[in-house]
Amino acid sequence: MRKKDKLQRELELYKSLREKDLRIFPVSKKVPPKVNELRELSTVPPLYFALIEELPIEQVKLFKAIVLTEEIALGWLGPQTPVIKLSHLKTVIVALPFWVYLDEKFLLSYTNKLGVLNDEDIHRLEGYAERARIPQDIRGEYIRSLMELLAPYNTESILTYLEKLEEYQFAPSVFIISDDLKNYYENSYFAYAKAASSKNVHKGKNFFAIVEKIPEIGPKLTLYLPQDYLGQKITIKVANNVLFEGTLETLRLEFTNLPELPDYTSWLEAIDVEISV
């Protein structure tokens, strides 16, 4: 049997086991999630999450999680694909090249803790998810189907996180981007950049950003920054152009008069937040 035919049969078998919408079940033993943990989502067929990062906000917890699967043939992209052996479960799982954001309540209610990964494994999983490309074949179809299944929980967790975060915030600092800078972005490569997976939410190394399109004022950028940045002088840039420079008085910053772009993925990824020396 040709490899392509075998993969097609694997995908068809997987689809026959998986319902159209992801059906998840509450777990009996609830263990609070922590970074570096490997957790199993209570669903059929099972999925796994490696918790690689917790967002740096003390009052609420949102975790960045790499997704792993038992479907070796469909998830294996080559020798670079990380493999984890679960000896006590007699199971082997492979990492998939994407991540989701899941809140503490979801992980507590619907996942079981399987163990703790070492830092080397965590770095390997994160590096793979960032570098690997999703192929345009049967394996890619499988991976994208999982991304679609998990999308509602990813989005719900992010929105829940932002709603909870609002409870701990003072009034935001609001800034208007200059017309010159707006025009610069609208005529730069950002105007033509189109990501493979469009998004309006981005988690940077020390910030969380979301772009909302509001009819009355146009697109608005909201940035959430770490608590220990309060009172410090910071600089916020996009592609080396300064959006804000000064002392941080609130953890939430809003920017209006954003450039009108067909896709904000590349623009969000170009944001850089640094503490000024």
Brief characterization of the structure:
With 277 residues, the chain is an alpha+beta fold.
3D structure, described in words:
This protein has 277 residues and is an alpha+beta fold. The protein contains seven helices and 14 strands. Strand 11 and strand 12 form a beta hairpin. The N and C termini lie far apart (63 Å). About 2% of the residues have low confidence.
Structural class, by secondary structure, is alpha+beta
Give the radius of gyration. Answer: 20 Å
Largest sheet report:
6 strands, antiparallel
- What is the C-level CATH assignment of the largest domain? Mainly Beta
How many beta strands in the DSSP annotation? Answer: 14
Provide the number of structural domains: 2
Low-confidence stretches: 194-198
Helical fraction: 25-40%
Specify the overall morphology.
globular
For the biggest β-sheet, the strand order reads: 4-5-3-2-1-6
Q: Kindly report the CATH topology of the largest domain.
A: SH3 type barrels
Descriptive keywords:
SH3 type barrels, 30% helix, globular, 5-stranded mixed beta sheet, 7 helices, 277 residues, 2 domains, alpha+beta
Layout of strands and helices, then pairs:
Layout: H1 3-17, E1 37-41, E2 47-54, E3 62-69, H2 72-75, E4 83-86, E5 91-103, H3 104-110, E6 111-116, H4 119-131, H5 138-167, E7 173-176, H6 179-186, E8 201-203, E9 208-214, E10 218-224, E11 233-238, E12 241-247, E13 252-256, H7 265-269, E14 271-275
Parallel strand pairs: 7-13
Antiparallel strand pairs: 1-2, 1-6, 2-3, 3-5, 4-5, 8-9, 9-10, 10-13, 11-12, 11-14
